[in-house]
Amino acid sequence: MIKRIFSDMDGTLLNKQGEISNANMNTIKTMPIPLTLVSGRAPIEMAPSIKRLGLTEDQIGFNGGLIYKVIDGGFELLHENYLELEVIETISRTIREKYPQVSLSVYDEANWFSDLKDRGIDLQHQATRCNVQLTSLAELFRAKKRKIFKMMLIVFDQKQLDEIHEYILSLGFDSIAVHRSGGIFLEVTSNQAQKALAIQKIMALENLKKEDIAAFGDGHNDISMLKLVGMPIVMGNAQDEIKEYALHITKSNLQDGVAYGIEKFCLPK
C-alpha cells in the first residue's frame, strides 16, 4: 500500500500555464495519502501550489537542496545543501563573460537575484509570478554569509545549451551538480542536492520503505527519484528515455495525469 507520494511540479503536476488543474487539486486534497512536492523551484516559487493544495507535509525544493515545512506563512528549514559561494561566484562570472546574452540568475533560500532583466527572466516571472531582485554580481557575492542554493541559466538555443552544459562541467568543480529541465533550463546546485537523497532523508525520518512510496516525474532531474521509489510513475508527456524508468505511465500534465495516476495506481482498490 502506498503511504507517501512525491511529485515533481513543472511538466508533471502543473499545466503549461504553471497552474494546478482543478482535477489534480481535488484528487490530492481528498486522497488519504500525504504528498510532498519535489521540485527544482525555490520555496517562494512553490508557495502558491502548496497553499492551493493545503499541504502541511515536508517539501523539497532546489532539486533536493532544501527540505522545509511551511509554517504560518513562512517556512522552517529542516535540511539544506547550498553551493560553495566562491565556486558559484566563479561560475557566474565566467558564464557572464563568455556568454553575455544568456539569462543568468541565482537563488538564496528566500530571494531570486539577477544582474539583467531579459527574456529568460520575463519567462520565469510569467511561470512563477515571482519578482526578481536586480543587482550586480559584485554586490550579490559581497555578502559572504549568503547561502546560494541554485544558479539558473535559461538558454533558448539547444546547441548553445549543450555547449554551456559541457563548459560548466569542464570547469572541474566536484561540489556541484548540473541539471537540465524543461528543454531550456540549466540549473547548478550542490552535488548533494538530488531528489533521491532528499527523499531518503524523509524516508528515514518517517520510517518509510521503498515499497511504501510512489513518485511522479517527467524529466532528467527526476531520474534519481524514479529509481529510488517502489512505484515510479512517469508522465505521458515525458521523453521516451525517461519512460524507461516507469513502473506505470500516466496521462500527460495537460490531461490531469497526476490525478489519473493517483486514482488508478496509488489509491487502495
- Counting DSSP H or I runs of 4 or more residues, the number of helices is 11
CATH topology of the largest domain: Rossmann fold
Query: Biggest sheet, in brief?
Result: 6 strands, mixed
Supply the CATH architecture of the largest domain. 3-Layer(aba) Sandwich
Look at the structure and give the CATH class of the largest domain: Alpha Beta
Shape: globular
Average predicted local confidence, pLDDT:
95
- Alpha-beta content class: alpha/beta
Number of domains: 2
Gyration radius from CA atoms, angstroms: 18 Å
How many E-type strands? 14
CATH superfamily of the largest domain: HAD superfamily/HAD-like
Helix-strand topology string = EHHEHEEEHEEHEHEHEEHEHEHEH
Poorly predicted ranges (pLDDT <50, ≥5 residues)? none
Biggest sheet: strand arrangement:
8-7-6-9-11-10
Question: What's the end-to-end separation, in Å?
Answer: 10 Å
What fraction of residues sit in β-strands?
15-25%
What share of residues is helical?
Answer: 25-40%
Give keywords.
2 domains; 5-stranded parallel sheet; 6-stranded mixed sheet; Rossmann fold; 269 residues; alpha/beta
What does this structure look like?
The chain is α/β, with parallel strands linked by helices and 269 residues long. It has 2 domains: 151 residues, 3-Layer(aba) Sandwich (Rossmann fold), CATH 3.40.50.1000; 106 residues, Hypothetical Protein, Haloacid Dehalogenase-like Hydrolase, Chain: A, domain 2, CATH 3.30.1240. The strands form 3 sheets. A 6-stranded mixed sheet has the order 8-7-6-9-11-10, with helices on both faces. It is globular. InterPro entries: Cof, HAD-like_sf, HAD-SF_hydro_IIB, HAD_sf. This is HAD family phosphatase. One of its GO terms (molecular function) is magnesium ion binding.
